[in-house]
């Protein structure tokens, strides 16, 4: 079965035509009916949720079934290894021993503080406004 023009594309096209002629097109079989879905209110953790995962099940029904599944208290257990479970909005007081070490390090590195250095720095914007009525005009 030798052909005169045996380039790659010609061979490929010929073989493709031959395979298309050899294999008759198969008609798709009858559509499989959806399995009967159990009522969502009757679902529990031990129920079979496989029927809800079928591609032809409505997305809203699937979500309602999954919502029912994950409302089980077994899924609401906090993992102790979760690093975001602490409340970082609460201030944690520094222990007195650590404050003493910090004060000692400050004194050792920078020398003793004078009275002026101990005062908190003033905000220059607040220092400009002496009169509360003036503050309203600036705002």
Question: What features would you describe in this structure?
Answer:
Helices cover 42% and strands 0% of the residues. It has 139 residues and is an all-alpha fold. It has a domain at 40-75. It is elongated and about 100 Å long.
Summarize the structure.
The chain contains 6 helices and no strands.
Mean pLDDT value? 78
The count of strands amounts to 0
Q: How many DSSP helices?
A: 6
Question: Pairing-aware structural class of the strands and helices?
Answer: mainly alpha
The termini sit apart by: 94 Å
Query: Per the principal axes of the C-alpha atoms, what is the gross shape?
Result: elongated
Helix content: 40-55%
* Rg, alpha carbons: 38 Å
SSE layout:
Blueprint: H1 8-22, H2 59-70, H3 96-110, H4 115-118, H5 124-128, H6 132-138
Pick out its properties.
single chain; elongated; 139 residues; mainly alpha
């Amino acid at each position: 079965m030798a052909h005169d023009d045996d380039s790659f594309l010609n061979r490929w096209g010929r073989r493709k035509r031959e395979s298309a002629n050899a294999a008759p097109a198969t008609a798709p079989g009858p559509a499989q009916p959806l399995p009967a879905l159990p009522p969502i209110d009757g679902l529990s953790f031990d129920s079979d949720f496989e029927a809800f995962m079928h591609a032809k099940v409505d997305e809203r029904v699937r979500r309602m079934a999954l919502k029912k599944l994950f409302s089980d208290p077994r899924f609401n257990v906090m993992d102790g290894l979760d690093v975001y479970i602490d409340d970082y909005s609460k201030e944690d007081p520094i222990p007195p021993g650590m404050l003493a070490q910090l004060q000692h390090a400050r004194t050792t590195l920078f020398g003793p503080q004078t009275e002026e250095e101990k005062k908190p720095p003033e905000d220059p914007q607040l220092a400009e406004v002496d009169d509360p009525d003036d503050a309203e005009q600036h705002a």
